[in-house]
Design goal:
The chain has about 260 residues and is α/β, with parallel strands linked by helices. The protein has a single domain, classed as SGNH hydrolase (Rossmann fold, 3-Layer(aba) Sandwich). It contains 14 helices and 5 strands. The chain has a 5-stranded parallel beta sheet with strand order 2-1-3-4-5, sandwiched between helices. The longest helix is centred in the N-terminal third of the chain and has 21 residues.
Length: about 260
C-alpha cells in the first residue's frame, strides 16, 4: 500500500468522526419548568463551563488589594446578588469593608473562589449571605443537606485561617408583583425558615455569630415587606438601610469574640 493510501485510511475516519461531532446539536440545560430560570441558566452556560466560580470577577482587585494594616478590622462580605448590589461604601463610610458578592452565585461557586476572595484578603471578619440561589436551583437542584455542608465547609476554612464568621439569615421573598411571582415560587418560605433555623443552631453550636435579617425585613405574612424591595427578591435602598446597622452590630459582636 502506498504512503498516501495509508494516510488516507488513517485520516479519513478521523475527519468523518470530527464532522459527525460538529453536526450534533449543542447540549442544552434541562428545563426546570420555570421560563425565567431556564432563560437565566441558558445565558450562563459559558460561565458554568469556562469559569464556574467566576474567579475572573475579582482576580485583579484581589491582587492589588493591600494587606490589612496593623489594627485594621477588615471585613469581607461574601454572597450573591443581594451582596453584589449592596454599595457598602454608602452604608459603612470609611470602614474597611470589602464586597465580594457575585450576581447569581450559589454556595458551590463561592467555595471555588473562597481562597482567592476571602482567605487571601486576610479579613478579621467574614459576613456570609448565601443560599437563596441554591434553593432556587440556579446551578442545579440542591438538597438542604448539601447547602448545609457548603456552609460548614466555608466556616471550617475560615476557622482554619483565624477568620471570625458571621452567617446571615436568608432574606424573605414576596410575590406582590408580577415580576416577583417566579422568584417566590422557587424559594418556598417554609424552606427558607428551615435553613435559617439550621444556620441559627449551627452558629450557636460552633460559637459563630448569627445575623438575623429576616425578622426585621418580613411583614405580617412572613414575606419581604413590599416597600423594601422593587422585585420581591433584592432589597432596595430602604431594605439595605435596615440591614446595615444589623450587620454592623453582628460584626462588632464577632470582633469581640476569639478568632
Amino acid at each position: 500500500m502506498h504512503l498516501q493510501q495509508i494516510q488516507r485510511s488513517i485520516l479519513l475516519p478521523f475527519f468523518f468522526s470530527i464532522s459527525a461531532c460538529a453536526q450534533q446539536p449543542a447540549p442544552s440545560i434541562p428545563s426546570t419548568g420555570y421560563p425565567d430560570l431556564d432563560q437565566y441558566r441558558a445565558s450562563r452556560i459559558a460561565i458554568y463551563t469556562d469559569d464556574f466560580g467566576q474567579l475572573a470577577r475579582y482576580r485583579d482587585a484581589d491582587k492589588v488589594a493591600t494587606a490589612a494594616v496593623a489594627g485594621e478590622k477588615r471585613v469581607v462580605f461574601l454572597g450573591d446578588s443581594i451582596t453584589d448590589y449592596w454599595k457598602l461604601e454608602n452604608y459603612f463610610p470609611g470602614k474597611p469593608y470589602i464586597n465580594r458578592g457575585v450576581d447569581g452565585q450559589s454556595t458551590p461557586e463561592m467555595l471555588v473562589r473562597f481562597r482567592q476572595d476571602v482567605i487571601d484578603l486576610d479579613p478579621a471578619v467574614l459576613v456570609i449571605l448565601a443560599g437563596t440561589n441554591d434553593i432556587a436551583g440556579v446551578t442545579g437542584r440542591t438538597r438542604n443537606e448539601d447547602l448545609e455542608a457548603n456552609y460548614s465547609s466555608m466556616a471550617e476554612l475560615a476557622r482554619l485561617h483565624h477568620i471570625r464568621v458571621v452567617f446571615a439569615s436568608l432574606l424573605p421573598i414576596n410575590n406582590y408583583t408580577t415580576e416577583a411571582k417566579e422568584s417566590f415560587a422557587l424559594r418556598p418560605g417554609e424552606r427558607l425558615q428551615v435553613i435559617n433555623g439550621w444556620l441559627k443552631n449551627y452558629c450557636a453550636k460552633k460559637g459563630l455569630v448569627y445575623l438575623d435579617y429576616s425578622s426585621s425585613l418580613k411583614d405580617e405574612k412572613g414575606m419581604l415587606r413590599r416597600e423594601l424591595s422593587d422585585d420581591g427578591l433584592h432589597p432596595n435602598h430602604a431594605g439595605y438601610k435596615i440591614m446595615a446597622p444589623l450587620a454592623e452590630k453582628a460584626i462588632s459582636k464577632a470582633l469581640a469574640s476569639k478568632p
